[in-house]
Structure formats: C-alpha cells, structure tokens
Write a structure and sequence with these properties.
The protein is mainly alpha-helical and 185 residues long. It folds into 2 domains: 72 residues; 103 residues, no CATH class. The longest helix is centred in the first third of the chain and has 38 residues. It starts with a helix and ends with a helix.
C-alpha cells in the first residue's frame, strides 16, 4: 500500500513539473492574438502553484503530526487512540456524520470532558483555567481570521481550505469552552 506522504510527494513533483511547463508556454504566448489562451494557461499555472505549495504544507503538517504522536502519544502499555482532527480520543455516535464537517454538540463535549480530572496541577504555578482562557482568545482570533480569509480568498481552493480550518477551529473552541466551564465550577 502506498503511503499518503508518498502520494503527496508524487503530487508535488508533478505540480512542480507542470508549473514549469506552463511557465515555458506563457513565455511563448506574448502576442496579443494569444491573449485568451495566455489567460487560460495563466489560470492553470496559478492553480498549479497553489497546489504545489499546498502539497508542501500538507507533507510538513503530516511529518509534524507524526513527530507529535511519537513524542506525546500513548506511552508503552497504554491503549492506542484514534486521533480525529478537532476531537481527539472521543468516540462519536454512529449517526453523527463526518467529524470534520460539524462542531460537536454541547452534550458530546460534556460527555467527553466528564472523565477529565476535577483539578489539574501544572508546573510553574500556572492555573489551568488561566491557560484555557488564553487559548480561547487565540482560538477565537484564529477562527475570525480564517473566516475573513474564506470570505476574501479569490482562489476557490484557498477559500474552501480556510472554511474547513475555520470549522476545525470551531471544534477547538467548543472543546476549550467545555474545559473552561468544567474548571470554572
């Protein structure tokens, strides 16, 4: 079975090659009579540049995710977990639908957080509630910025990507608000 990373690497190589080919053709289409064709090829070249850089970012993101799991994932002897974007280690009901497309309802967040320790002591005398409030501010800002990008982006891939990341940030907000509620009681 071919790994996702090798597919991403293959796509990146093809996108790079194709972008170079489009650029070579664009250099040859200077005459006004080729304006329509040049504009079409330019659009293809722009899309290809986006695709190439998105594949670079996707590869880096997966490599970082693998490192994070290796460094902070389950210890030997602990039960392995499924890491679901936005909602790690939670078992969702069968009828919930695609996890990446919806913010978990409040009752699911409550069920998920129920088994968390009632009190968390972290080094350096920082209070968990203070950290959560800071994280909430950052997540709210990111959610607003991704929303803004999704509304302003001229490229449909960037727009859709920003919309999906915004949904993921909404999941983060739901979980952090649940934690804030739990540790405020």
């Amino acid at each position: 079975m071919v790994s996702l990373i090798s597919r991403v690497e293959e796509l990146k190589r093809i996108e790079e090659k194709t972008e170079k080919e489009y650029r070579k053709l664009l250099k040859k289409l200077k005459d006004p009579e080729y304006a329509d064709l040049r504009n079409l090829i330019l659009r293809l070249a722009i899309d290809t540049a986006f695709h190439k850089h998105l594949m670079e970012a996707l590869k880096k993101a997966y490599e970082d995710a693998i490192k994070l799991v290796a460094e902070y994932g389950p210890e030997e002897g602990e039960e392995a977990v499924a890491l679901i974007p936005g909602v790690p280690t939670i078992a969702m009901p069968l009828g919930f639908g695609q996890i990446g497309a919806r913010v978990p309802p409040e009752e699911i967040v409550e069920v998920f957080l129920r088994d968390f320790p009632a009190e968390v002591v972290i080094p350096d005398d920082e209070k968990i509630l203070d950290l959560i409030k800071r994280y909430l501010e950052d997540e709210e800002r990111m959610e607003r910025l991704y929303d803004d990008i999704s509304k302003r982006a001229f490229h449909p891939i960037v727009r859709t990507l920003a919309q999906e990341i915004k949904r993921n940030e909404e999941q983060h907000l739901a979980l952090l608000k649940g934690l804030e509620k739990k540790y405020s009681e």
